[in-house]
């Protein structure tokens, strides 16, 4: 069994000072596949000091030079693609095609920010138009400094790429803490840093949990900015910690995103997109479209189309090419979702397919894909993020009611609009309060478009030029011409 007992600090593998050990499991085989150190605050001190020492030289490189390292990350991930796909299947329970999508998204992100790093050189020192005689001003973009990057377990290589690639492109040095639940895929990032001779201290990777590494990292006064992806509960703790010393934060948090099916939609086509929005990654997606708002005239047809697709889903070994849906990533997550299913029973929700509608594989942390209809807006299942394969639907009498229901949420990460008229879908999309709106498509996340939420879904944006800006400080130099 693998023992992740070393961090990557200052370009070397260094033994953790942590004394606690955490199990890392294969959620299909229900087997321990590794043990990971919980970490120790002293490890954080060492990593932050190494990142601080590395900052001046890394910042002094041109964007083009930093871009070459990001291309090298993309090349190295491409070489490891097959091995990392299998690792994501065994550590996360992802089915093969989904793990492949993750890898390709991560690689595209490193490539995109390699280009952004190169483009940054031309943006430095641009003159600013002034209305003052004899005075000139020029605009520069400096790195934010030493950054702490904390990622969750549902998309390890993707969420870390969205932080690490723009941070390094901007000239920041980083301390990255993967989730203790899925530390294996991101361990590869430190191996790649060593392989491509990334200057020591530019990327430091610390294994551990919230107590051993996460909280000390966010509280560390020498960390200039923290970028966090995870739950609202922890995100709020991160924000409180960063308020000490008035340090910056970016937060990518939870969601309860709607999918709207308008009265002119094709119900069969709509059902395909609805399925992809909720049962991908066994529903463990921050942007899961977990609230279905369907025009009343189409409701029965859409529910019937969904029921037949749910029945056709093959649940099984993530490494088996026939599997459409794997287990949940941990026993703990399965318990969390089961608690919501118990609430659904207490509330007497109407199930189109309940959690007991099929026999589950004999092993693995599986849950049946579940669909409720006519769910009251007061139900906890309608309002709270469940983070599992549970879809809640209700009907709307018309477009205006659908928009009102969609926006009646504490969250605002994403939404999907399905209509036979794409102009109408786009117009409805403009009325929704969320960061990413898809119309007549699956959830596409190109690295060129921004990612992040309104309301409680977070603060700031990742991806696109906004993802780079999150790691840059704007500086103006002003004086006589
Ligand atoms: P989590 O909040 O439990 O953990 C996230 C990370 O924070 C982990 O690395 C964890 O070790 C660390 N952590 C725990 N306590 C900490 C503390 N006190 N200080 C600092 N770090 C600490 O979340 P999770 O269960 O890993 O992930 C699921 C959540 O992530 C869901 O709510 C989901 O919506 C959200 N998520 C959001 C996005 C997005 O882009 N908006 C993407 C993926 C996941």
Automatic annotation (TrEMBL):
InterPro entries assigned to the protein according to its UniProt record, in alphabetical order: Ald_DH/histidinol_DH, Ald_DH_C, Ald_DH_CS_CYS, Ald_DH_CS_GLU, Ald_DH_N, Aldehyde_DH_dom
Domain of life of the organism encoding this protein: Bacteria
PROSITE patterns per UniProt: ALDEHYDE_DEHYDR_CYS, ALDEHYDE_DEHYDR_GLU
EC number: 1.2.1.3
Residue ranges constituting the Aldehyde dehydrogenase domain according to the UniProt record: 13-477
Sorted UniProt keywords: Oxidoreductase
Molecular functions per Gene Ontology: aldehyde dehydrogenase (NAD+) activity
Catalytic residues (positions): 252
Reaction(s) the record says it catalyses: an aldehyde + NAD(+) + H2O = a carboxylate + NADH + 2 H(+)
Gene3D superfamilies, per the entry: Aldehyde Dehydrogenase, Chain A, domain 1, Aldehyde Dehydrogenase, Chain A, domain 2
Family statement drawn from the similarity comment of this UniProt entry: Belongs to the aldehyde dehydrogenase family.
Protein's name according to its UniProt entry: aldehyde dehydrogenase (NAD(+))
Source species: Franzmannia pantelleriensis
């Amino acid at each position: 069994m693998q023992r992740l007992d070393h961090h990557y600090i200052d370009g070397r593998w260094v033994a953790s000072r942590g004394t606690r050990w955490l199990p890392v499991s294969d959620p299909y085989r229900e087997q321990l596949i590794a043990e990971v150190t919980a970490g120790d605050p002293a490890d954080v001190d060492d990593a932050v000091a190494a990142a601080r020492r590395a900052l001046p030289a890394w910042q002094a490189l041109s964007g083009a030079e930093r871009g070459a390292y990001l291309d090298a990350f993309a090349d190295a991930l491409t070489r490891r693609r097959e091995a990392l796909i299998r690792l994501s299947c065994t550590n996360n329970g992802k089915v093969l095609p989904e793990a492949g999508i993750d890898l390709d998204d991560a690689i595209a992100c490193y490539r995109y920010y390699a280009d952004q790093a190169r483009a940054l050189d031309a943006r430095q020192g641009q003159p600013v138009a002034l209305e003052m005689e004899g005075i000139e001003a020029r605009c520069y973009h400096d790195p934010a400094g030493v950054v702490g990057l904390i990622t969750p377990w549902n998309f390890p290589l993707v969420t870390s790429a969205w932080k690490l690639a723009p941070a390094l492109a901007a000239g920041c040095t980083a301390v990255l803490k993967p989730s203790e639940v899925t530390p294996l895929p991101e361990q590869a990032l430190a191996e790649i840093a060593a392989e491509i001779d990334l200057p020591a201290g530019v990327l430091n990777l610390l294994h551990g949990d919230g107590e051993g590494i996460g909280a000390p990292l966010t509280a560390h006064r020498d960390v200039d900015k923290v970028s966090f992806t995870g739950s609202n509960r922890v995100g709020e703790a991160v924000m409180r910690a960063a308020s000490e010393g008035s340090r910056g934060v970016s937060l990518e948090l939870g969601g309860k995103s709607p999918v709207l099916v308008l009265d002119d939609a094709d119900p069969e086509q709509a059902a395909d997109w609805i399925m992809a929005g909720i049962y991908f990654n066994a529903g463990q997606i921050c942007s899961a479209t977990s609230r279905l708002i369907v025009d009343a005239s189409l409701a029965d047809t859409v529910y019937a189309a969904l029921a037949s697709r749910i029945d056709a889903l093959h649940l099984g070994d993530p490494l088996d090419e026939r599997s459409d849906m794997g287990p949940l990533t941990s026993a703990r997550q399965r318990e969390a979702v089961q608690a919501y299913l118990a609430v659904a029973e207490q509330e007497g929700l109407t199930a189109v397919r309940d959690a007991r509608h099929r026999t589950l594989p004999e092993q693995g942390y599986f849950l049946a894909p579940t669909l409720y209809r006519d769910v009251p807006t007061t139900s906890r299942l309608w309002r709270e993020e469940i983070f599992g394969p549970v879809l809640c639907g209700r009907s709307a009498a018309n477009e205006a009611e659908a928009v009102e229901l969609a926006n009646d949420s504490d969250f605002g990460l994403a939404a999907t609009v399905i209509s036979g008229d794409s102009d109408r879908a786009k117009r409805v999309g403009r009325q929704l309060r969320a960061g990413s709106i898809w119309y007549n498509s699956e959830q596409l996340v190109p690295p060129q478009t921004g990612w992040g939420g309104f309301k409680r879904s977070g603060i700031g944006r990742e991806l696109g030029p906004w993802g780079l800006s999150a790691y840059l400080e704007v500086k103006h130099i002003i004086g006589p011409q």
